[in-house]
## 1
Amino acid sequence: MANETMHMSAAGIAALRQREGAVLRYYNDAANHCTYGVGTLAHHGPCTDEELRRPVTADQVNAQLAAGVARAEAAVRRRVRNQQLTQAQFDALVSFAFNTGAAGARAALDAANRGASGEVVTHMNDNVYVHPRDANGRRLAPRRLQGLVNRRLEEAAPFQTGRNAR
């Protein structure tokens, strides 16, 4: 089975940390969900006042990052079994799955499993919207985020023609 022994590289983890940022407190993300650390979702909906005052340690952030990366790696290995990925491709798919969740990454992972690099790029580049919620949890109109556009360009790069060995 292809990719069964792959893990995200140190460079891939460093890039993920840079893309996500590391915040040692709880905050409301762009979709108004309570988040902390390196993009760790605490829960859907905004943080409570108590959560906004709660500090987060570097050890907590690192533990949640490691757990999130492990889940994303497992999702990539589980869904991309037929095509051997380069390290750059594996890192990119793990970063994407970390950010979107395994369900959100499914179409891109399935395309990678078929060796359809162009479809991987398309699926990644389509995933640049957040669906914010108001203070009462009601879903608002989706918003396109330039930060996600930039991130997807980086993540999709190893699947671009001529860049697979990057």
## 2
Amino acid sequence: VSADDDPKVAALAALRQGNALLDTGDAVGALAKYEHAMALYPSPKLHFNIGEALLAIPGREGAAHESFTRFLALAKDANADVK
């Protein structure tokens, strides 16, 4: 199944791209990828990644807190070992 055929596959690709960007310090770029992933395949687990990116952007701590709160409330089946 290709990303063109399956929004979940495309969202996973965007998530991985966001993780790579966050690892290099590009929190703004990572946030864009995470938000794109969320638009393609809304998953409560993405709120964690969005929160991480927001936390790394000065002045966005409040939005990060909101995203982490959404993650905790909605992602009941999240695996603690998966980023």
## 3
Amino acid sequence: MKPTVEDAGQVGAEVHLLEHDGSTLYGASLRVAFVARLRDERRFPTLDALKAQIADDAERAQALLAG
């Protein structure tokens, strides 16, 4: 629901591509598979706090996917 950024009441999924080369993917179809839940949804006090949490989440995801 993105409680830190907006409270529009819309459910969605935000996907971060780890180790992506940066090429544009606009208009592309992607298949996403859920492997594990990293954390529960919560509101962060600032965008910087959210960004720091996303960085931690990315590190945890890489470790989890590495096996």
